[in-house]
Design goal:
The chain is α+β, with helices and mostly antiparallel strands. It is built from 9 helices and 11 strands. A 5-stranded antiparallel β-sheet has the order 2-1-5-4-3, sandwiched between helices. It has a 4-stranded antiparallel β-sheet with strand order 7-8-6-11, sandwiched between helices. The protein has a two-stranded antiparallel sheet with strand order 9-10. The longest helix is centred in the C-terminal third of the chain and has 23 residues.
Length: 281
């Protein structure tokens, strides 16, 4: 049963840090990627398991309790890769000689599934449900990273975008139409992005664009393109609707933090909105 078991098993001498391999099954050899000739008489700590505080604790449990169940241990393969495992061990005494029998369960697939699940949850926590864009949390993280990595000749540029006329669409045509407008605006903003750019929805009708760090501010032509693309008429149901854009742009200054950059872009956006409203009255 030891020899043909699909689960990795080993028998080692019971002398703590100097414990050596006495016998392993084929599943164990497959797990560590070695031949028996490479392990016979070799110290376990010199091949598959590093000697650390966790291994010392496991030795202590074997000595005091006679075994342990389900200890997390990282096994090193011959190619240097690490395999996460759960090891259960039992100390046996035969003819006054102590041996440690270990059963090793490879849990790498379980760990991979867990990490994939955690990645999905992390992405969901950073995604705006309606627009599919990154949300305020993702934006704050990206902005903080760009500010931290900024250099004197490559500073991030932030544009805050507010939709003009959006409230009237909600009030006149209903929230379903408003939601459809937000989704189309998100799609159009994505179409205007270039490599290294980042766009997020940070509020009801507010979006933020982080342009790739550059030595100079974003040219007006680029902003005009965004306004033209997003402001084009939208067919929502049978209605042709459109929104305007107020955009406030700021480039990170020397010694400036993320909050100060955001406030300057926000002030610039509301100044543009104020000027647009004054021209309409």
């Amino acid at each position: 049963m030891f020899a043909i078991s699909p689960i990795a098993m080993s028998i080692t001498s019971s002398n703590g840090r100097d414990s050596q391999y006495l016998r392993v099954n084929a599943a164990y050899l497959r797990l560590v990627g070695r031949q028996w000739s490479e392990l016979q008489g070799v110290k376990v700590a010199d091949s598959a398991v590093r000697e650390d505080a966790a291994r010392t604790r496991r030795h202590q449990r074997l000595a005091e309790e006679g075994g342990y169940v389900g200890e997390y241990v990282e096994i090193q393969r011959s190619d240097g890769s690490i395999v996460p495992t759960l090891i259960s061990a039992q100390r046996s005494i035969i003819d006054d000689v102590q041996y440690d029998v270990e059963i090793i369960v490879d849990i790498s697939s379980r760990i991979s599934e867990q990490r994939a699940h955690e990645k999905v949850l992390s992405e969901l926590a950073r995604t705006d449900v309606m627009s599919g864009l990154p949300n305020r949390r993702a934006f704050d993280e990206r902005l903080a990273t760009l500010v931290e990595k900024a250099t004197a000749d490559r500073q991030p540029v932030l544009a805050l975008v507010d939709l003009d006329g959006f409230k009237a669409i909600n009030d006149t045509h209903g929230h379903a139409a408003g939601d459809a407008v937000v989704q189309l605006v998100a799609e159009r903003l994505v179409q205007t992005l270039r490599e290294g750019d980042f766009v997020a929805r940070i509020g009801g009708d507010e979006f933020a664009i982080l342009f790739a760090p550059a030595p100079r501010a974003i040219p007006d032509e680029r902003l005009s393109q965004i306004i033209a693309v997003v402001g084009a008429p939208m067919l929502i149901g049978t209605q042709s609707l459109s929104v305007g854009l107020s955009i406030g742009v700021a480039q990170l200054g020397d010694g400036e933090d993320a909050q100060r950059l955001f406030r300057r872009a926000d002030s610039a956006m509301y100044e543009m909105k104020r000027q647009r409203n004054s021209r309409m009255t």
